[in-house]
């Protein structure tokens, strides 16, 4: 066995990392809302960010920081309760001030700290509360605060999301740890999703960037709750080398990349299963496409269709909505070749459509699948060998309730 999953692990499980979470008064609830993640030595680093053209100040600042320094990062400062998005030049100045304040309290230069924010868009960041939070948090940094940090970055999440994986490499054992938040505005490229992944392996910044992008594409960019992509989406990966093991050969890179993929997938599934108002998680598997891009377009259209998602919510096997979404995806296809299956777990799937025509399936059997908390929908386009998988959810009354009064 080359790796071990540590379900109680977190971003501070890898050696050399510590964290702190405090209530700085940014949230009205009085819950923790200011988090520090710190490494006792310099880290190589990589990040993936939202593709929303309206990007929050922390995203802009982090992109610029990593462009000039991806080999000597010391930590991350995160606030919840305020997105610092659509806040103009003052917002950028506040994001940079978060870097400066962290460096002042923890040492090093401002450009050795990355920043994240999540919460309401369009409200000025209360920087004095952030300042006081950093002052309180810095002395309480501890490796024992990983789960507290995961709780401190939550907004509408109902539970913290964290995990660690111990990996046996040819040069020795290293650990990957991580935390994420997200429950709404979740969609590929990416989501209202923040994540910090850490490792005590020594990995080059270039390798980190390549592996993180691949891992994100298979995980955080393969989930959708509501089709909305946020202004703040950020996943950061920090490697401090404290374990004394280098990932610098083909075998080590493959093992490390596989573990990173598994960690990111697990965190992404925690996000989608904790989506706002979610009662069902659905795997959308599109096969038989000409290209992977075509498969993803079809999967995205199915996963974000309000009619499909409300059918999921009602446990109604209204399969015609799935094929209708397939047909409006913009992908060139022949409806006479379409096939559709639904299924649960490892049980034989129930074929609903063959060659574009309904089968003689039993309606009650289809309803039984749609009544499950997790099931799979597979659409085959009959036009090639490319495929993709995306995870989505139902759309319930609770989702509307949560987002109708989010600010009040």
In short:
The protein is an alpha+beta fold and 408 residues long. The chain has helices at residues 57-68, 88-106, 127-137, 146-152, 205-218, 250-273, 292-304, 306-314, 319-327, 363-370, 397-404; strands spanning 3-6, 17-22, 34-49, 73-82, 113-120, 161-169, 172-181, 194-199, 223-224, 234-239, 281-289, 339-343, 350-354, 357-358, 374-380, 386-393.
Percent helix = 25-40%
The CA-CA distance between the termini, in Å, is 50 Å
Q: What is the N-to-C succession of helices and strands? A: EEEHEHEHHEEEHEEHEHHHEEEHEEH
CATH class of the largest domain: Alpha Beta
| Biggest sheet architecture | 9 strands, mixed
* Average of pLDDT: 93
Domains, number: 2
Structural class: alpha+beta
Shape: globular
**What is the CATH topology descriptor of the largest domain?**
L-amino peptidase D-ALA esterase/amidase
